[in-house]
């Protein structure tokens, strides 16, 4: 069960990363900045 939990956590982190990149792309459509200090503070 520990292995399954670890896989689920990795999948969740990947999904969150994709959502974060998508949000950044929508927030900055003209100049895509995936990770900035301001985004990390939000």
Task: Kindly state the percentage of residues in helix.
Answer: over 70%
Distance, first to last CA: 34 Å
Quaternary organization: single chain
Radius of gyration: 14 Å
Kindly state the number of beta strands.
Answer: 0
The major pleated sheet works out as: none
What is the string of helix and strand elements?
A: HH
Class per helix and strand makeup? mainly alpha
- Write down the overall geometry: elongated
Overall mean pLDDT: 73
Number of domains: 1
Low-confidence stretches: none
Beta-strand percentage range: under 5%
Number of distinct helices: 2
Quick gist of this model?
It contains two helices and no strands. The protein has helices at residues 2-27, 37-41. The mean pLDDT is 73.
Question: What does it look like?
Answer:
The protein is an all-alpha fold. 74% of the residues lie in helices and 0% in strands. It has helices at residues 2-27, 37-41.
């Amino acid at each position: 069960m520990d292995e399954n939990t670890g896989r689920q956590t990795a999948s969740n982190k990947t999904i969150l990363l994709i959502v974060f990149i998508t949000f950044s792309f929508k927030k900055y459509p003209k100049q895509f900045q995936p990770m900035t200090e301001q985004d990390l503070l939000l």
